[in-house]
Amino acid sequence: LVDRIAAVVLLVPFGPVMVAPVIMAFGTAEQQQRFLPGIASGDVWWSQGYSEPGSGSDLASVKTRAERQGNKYIVNGQKTWTTLGQYGEWIFCLVRTNREAKKQEGISFLLVDMNSPGVEVRPIITLDGEHEVNEVFFTDVKVPIENLVGEENKGWTYAKFLLTYERTNIAG
Q: 105, 132, 152, 166: which is the annotated catalytic residue?
């Protein structure tokens, strides 16, 4: 499986380079069985939901909220500069699950189906007239609790882990 994921890296880095290592290290066995085959085959396109308006690269200032209601989260907020998000089938997101905690401690890592009701992708047309990046809006999006990677409020740890893979990919 790891060799197949490595082969897909050149095609779509968000799945194999970024979210796959997080799912492999911190995901449940069910998440690994559900998501890794599609990442390895290149059949499922992933997007990254980290940046937000007014936050720049300060990921700890995430404002997109995910409030737990029974066996699901209700997600509201916005992500920006989502590269190739118009093709995304899934998006991995940093979301605020505890507004009372210190900035880095109240964040969780959620996997969101981009076809969920309430997900809207809007293009950002760059100066060269191209459409590579997007804004992604979440309005009362229902995300099953089983799409939480790792523990609630520990997303900062998983984000740092992911960024080591992202930076290594850029260096290559």
A: 166
CA 167, 130, 49, 57 dihedral sign is positive
For residues 101 and 154, give the distance between their C-alpha atoms in angstroms, rounded to a whole number: 11
pLDDT for position 80: 94
CB 112 within 8 A of CB 137: no
Angle at 62 between CA 57 and CA 63, to 5 degrees: 140
- SS3 call for 43: coil
Whether 29 and 61 have beta carbons less than 8 Å apart is answered as: no
pLDDT digits (tens, 9 = 90+) for 17-75: 899 999 999 999 999 999 999 999 889 999 999 999 988 677 888 999 999 999 999 99
Mean of pLDDT over the chain: 88
Which residues pair with residue 67 across a beta bridge? 74
Is 135 one of the catalytic residues? no
Radius of gyration of the chain (CA): 15
Of the listed ranges 13-17, 22-26, 145-149, 150-154, the one predicted with least confidence: 13-17
CA nearest 97: which of 64, 127, 70? 64
